[in-house]
Amino acid sequence: ELEAARNAASSDNLRSPICCILGHVDTGKTKLLDKIRQTNVQEGEAGGITQQIGATYFPVEALQKKTQVVNQDGAFEFKVPGLLVIDTPGHESFTNLRSRGSSLCNIAILVVDIMHGLEPQTLESMRLLRERKTPFIVALNKIDRLYGWKPIANNGFRESLGLQNKGVQNEFRDRLEKTKLAFSEQGFNAELFYENKSMAKFVSLVPTSAHTGEGIPDMLKLLVTLTQERMTKQLMYLSEVECTVLEVKVIEGLGTTIDVVLSNGVMHEGDTIVLCGTDGPITTQVRALLTPAEMKELRVKSVYVHNKTVKAALGVKITANGLDNAIAGSRLLVAKNKDDEDEIEELEEDVMGDLENLMSRISKT
Ligand code: GDP
């Protein structure tokens, strides 16, 4: 019976959404990432969170545990198999994670410091999100800095707020209203998440503290809600590979490698791949698909595990010949037939079509 249930769930055939974090410097992006990765051993929360190349993977079991305080009755249903969160916060990772003008980030968390409101890079982030039509939620972070805030570690926000004194509640409302007004001046209508009647019309604001962990269960639940309500089509599992180069890195003993995010499809060792290079297209064979070794595997000589096959969504390191001139941000395509010269040529033209865009970004940074 259990087996049947599992099959039913997988018949939805959704892949894990990919999430980016962006926002102004010092709003707490890094701290929020650290906090959601942290596992609570006392509460038996191991959950299988795995560190990947450039990203952290949260399987649905981990998400269920982390959202338990705001889903006591279990009424909220998870349909996605998990969530892949990109580790590098900020615009760069977001603008790099693109394909054909659309972002490979399916959803984003825009972090705003509740004490500071909207700042220059917040506006820049909003512009990018609008341009790419990326659904996002706003983490209104550092609520523990509201004067007199009494924290309850890792609690749901609504309950925590209810337990504060009137003065704290008033200051919160005041800052919330100011933030909503600032968002509307930017052309976004925003609502406190549990007062939001339509995620299609309003951006949800979720108050958080990366220090106390309050609001983080709400934030994760909201991310899953947003993906499930708004983007099941984009999350249908495809056989076609969608893959983007995050970073080009020289690693001792491996030569030049590329760290990629495989956002859809399956890749195999030996696949013929095509990507963008500074000296023209690069066509090469995948020598190895590497993922970080888990702690228990670390005593074996390598920090990486070799995979014959990898399936989206995940971050993976690729080794291959000829990657020296690879460009970060490039799409990576896989040839169906490595001996079909016409196909290879088509793929090469395809990836090089992005070059102008990529180069203008490189010259700007
Ligand atoms: P980033 O530049 O957006 O990645 O910001 P960081 O995560 O590096 O945080 C910037 C500073 O704000 C650090 O000193 C953090 O300790 C602090 N900080 C981050 N989140 C919170 C929070 O929720 N509450 C408080 N009080 N401080 C925070």
UniProtKB/TrEMBL annotation:
Compartments, record wording? Cytoplasm
Q: What is this protein called?
A: Eukaryotic translation initiation factor 5B
Q: State the family named in the UniProt similarity comment for this chain.
A: Belongs to the TRAFAC class translation factor GTPase superfamily. Classic translation factor GTPase family. IF-2 subfamily.
Tr-type G domain segment(s): 14-232
Record organism: Baudoinia panamericana (strain UAMH 10762) (Angels' share fungus)
Supply the source organism's classification.
Answer: Eukaryota, Fungi, Dikarya, Ascomycota, Pezizomycotina
Q: Indicate the segments annotated as coiled coil, or none if absent.
A: 330-357
Q: Which domain of life is it from?
A: Eukaryota
Within the intact protein, the region shown is 486 to 850 of 1097
